[in-house]
Design goal:
- The structure holds two protein chains of two kinds.
- Chain A is of the alpha+beta class.
- Chain A has one domain: Folate-binding superfamily (Folate-binding fold), CATH 3.30.2270.
- Chain A is about 15% helix and about 30% strand.
- Chain A is built from two helices and six strands; from the N terminus they run βββαβββα.
- In chain A, a hairpin with a 5-residue loop joins strand 5 and strand 6.
- Chain A is globular.
- The two termini of chain A are about 30 Å apart.
- Chain B is α/β, with parallel strands linked by helices.
- Chain B folds into two domains: about 30-90 and about 185-250 and about 345-410, 3-Layer(bba) Sandwich (FAD/NAD(P)-binding domain), CATH 3.50.50.60; about 120-180 and about 255-340, D-Amino Acid Oxidase, subunit A, domain 2 (D-Amino Acid Oxidase, Chain A, domain 2), CATH 3.30.9.
- Chain B has eleven helices and 18 strands.
- In chain B, helix 2 (about 40-55) runs parallel beside helix 6, helix 2 packs across helix 9 and helix 3 (about 85-105) crosses helix 9.
- Chain B is globular, with a radius of gyration of 21 Å.
- Chain B starts with 5 loop residues before the first helix and ends with a helix.
- The chains are: A alpha+beta, B alpha/beta.
């Protein structure tokens, strides 16, 4: 059972209380974007075996969306953080670097 | 290769079984092959087999990082059916189902195909309409299926409880020629036939890089050294994203865990496959007597080959409502496989941005039933650059908005 701490209400929630929302920090394309960029935005995913930043919703709790840094290979959770950001906060990145030196995920490292 | 036959069994019985030979060779990789297939699961081996059998390309290596058929080929619930909604899906799944009928003879290997029939239960009014629509679509596609009422469901599967209470059985979509097969035997049979054609099935050989030159694939790097090839087929299910990254492109795929479990063996009580998509559960009885149960997939990306416990609980809880007699069954084993899910729940059999590199992935929760059809079409695509079976399943369909939407027919259970 995956247990994540909701950064808004502080509850330690079992995954049955949450809903997974897929990859985080996807750049939204809009009017004027190329077909390729739109395809990437809508469908292409990093789907890494390793560090993954993703969206979750505390659906049976406070209802807020938040972000999680997690390893898809070990299910280790590095931390949760607010959804009101376009990139992972430095403390989360540092924490990952401590355990997985040299990691990268898309444009972040 | 010595053929398996009743005569061979009799002959070996008379000489203490000393004459059986290895079913396939365990060679070291050569420097170069005409084609390399990454992944010795059902789809990869079937691709290699049809490359040799239908297209005469026999200088082929099939590379496997683990052991033969140890991924999703050995982890599924072995259901075979072709009652899909869209024409492109019906074509490839029906091709696969028909090839399963003669597979044991073709491969000279008993895959224990058992066309015992598959019922997909309708337990809501929405599902009744959905399956009636699928039955009509199947009639137009030449796939023999039938809408049946609840009493017929009860006749076919006496242990079922029609009354619910939460989800009464209101009928079902019946495919009499669907069924099950022994999944390991499918991989073993193809491997034996490939090896017999002179192909190299190389286990414990992990691909660590895909080498390219001027936008063209030239070979792979592996834990057993570099191997060159003219054409490359990536057939690795859950790890497709990892291989695609090595090749330098991204896929519209996310990998999640799907679980299954089997009970202790009991006396024969159910000779059809029953799928209950509303409650996320499906069940059949193996030849050993175990009840083979599959459930829903996890919602989050995962490569661990084990899923979340609550899915087992939900699956079993739902099945007990539909089959009250299994409530005291003990479960023997539970396991997970990593399935590669696309947005439209249809597979990708396609050329890639890297020339001479092809990919066969995205089968999600329903790949086993498609193995021979997938191999047939993908081999044709690799050999000729085009196959009518795979034409609709290209990577470009996402960009062009030509989805093959099977999320209703296939999104939950397989």
């Amino acid at each position: 059972m995956l247990i994540l701490t909701c950064p808004y209400c502080g509850v330690e929630a079992d995954e049955t209380e949450l809903q997974a929302g897929g990859e985080a920090h996807i750049k939204r394309e809009t009017v004027g974007s190329s077909d390729e960029d739109f395809e990437d935005y809508l469908f292409a995913r990093q789907n890494p075996k390793g560090i993954h930043f993703e969206r979750w919703r505390h659906v049976y709790g406070c209802g807020k969306w938040f972000h999680v840094a997690r390893c898809t290979n070990t299910l280790e959770v590095f931390g949760t953080y607010s959804a009101q950001t376009t990139e992972p906060p430095q403390d989360i990145r540092d924490k990952i670097s401590g355990k997985r030196p040299g990691w990268s995920w898309g444009i972040f490292s | 290769m010595k053929r398996y036959s009743a005569f061979a069994i009799a002959r070996e019985a008379l000489r203490y079984h000393s004459g059986w030979e290895r079913a396939w060779r365990a060679p070291e990789p050569k420097k170069k092959y005409d084609a390399i297939i990454i992944g010795a699961g059902g789809h990869g081996l079937a691709t290699a087999y049809y490359l040799g059998k239908n297209h005469g390309i026999k200088n082929v290596a099939i590379l496997e990082k683990g052991w033969l058929g140890g991924g999703n080929t050995g982890r599924n619930t072995t259901i075979i059916r072709s009652n899909y909604l869209q024409d492109a899906s019906a074509a490839i799944y029906e091709k696969a189902r028909s090839l399963y009928e003669t597979m044991s003879q073709d491969l000279n290997y008993n895959v224990m195909f058992s066309p015992r029939g598959v019922i997909m239960l309708a337990q809501t009014h929405h599902e009744v309409r959905g399956y009636q629509r699928t039955a009509h679509a199947n009639a137009l596609q030449g796939v023999k299926t039938e809408w049946i009422g609840p009493q017929r469901v009860k006749e076919l599967c006496p242990i079922i409880c029609l009354d619910g209470p939460r989800y009464p059985v209101m009928g079902g979509l019946w495919q009499a020629r669907g069924g099950t097969a022994r999944h390991d035997a499918v991989a073993w049979g193809y491997a034996r036939a490939c090896s017999d054609m002179g192909m190299d099935v190389i286990q414990k050989c992990e691909v660590t890089g895909i080498r390219q030159d001027g936008g063209k694939v030239v070979g792979v790097s592996t834990t057993k050294g570099d191997i060159d090839c003219d054409k490359l087929g990536i057939v690795v299910a859950g790890h497709s994203g990892v291989l695609a990254e090595m090749a330098g492109f991204r896929l519209p795929i996310e990998s999640v865990a799907l679980q299954a479990l089997v009970s202790e063996p009991i006396k024969p009580c159910m000779d059809v496959v029953v799928m209950a998509n509303t409650v996320h559960g499906y069940m059949s009885q193996s030849d050993k007597g175990e009840m083979v149960i599959g459930g829903g997939a996890d919602g989050y990306n995962n490569y661990t080959q084990r899923g979340s416990f609550h899915h087992i609980e939900e699956t079993v809880r739902a099945l007990i409502e539909t089959f009250p007699m299994i409530s005291r069954l003990k479960m023997l084993r539970q396991w997970g496989g990593i399935v590669d899910m696309t947005g439209d729940r249809s597979p990708i059999l396609s050329k890639t941005p890297l020339e001479n590199c092809f990919i066969n992935c995205g089968w999600g929760t329903g790949g086993f039933k498609a193995i021979p059809g997938s191999g047939w079409g993908f081999a044709e695509l690799m050999a000729n650059g085009y196959s009518p079976l795979t034409a609709e399943f290209g990577l470009n369909r996402f960009k062009e908005g030509r989805f093959i939407d099977e999320s209703v027919a296939a999104g939950v259970a397989h």
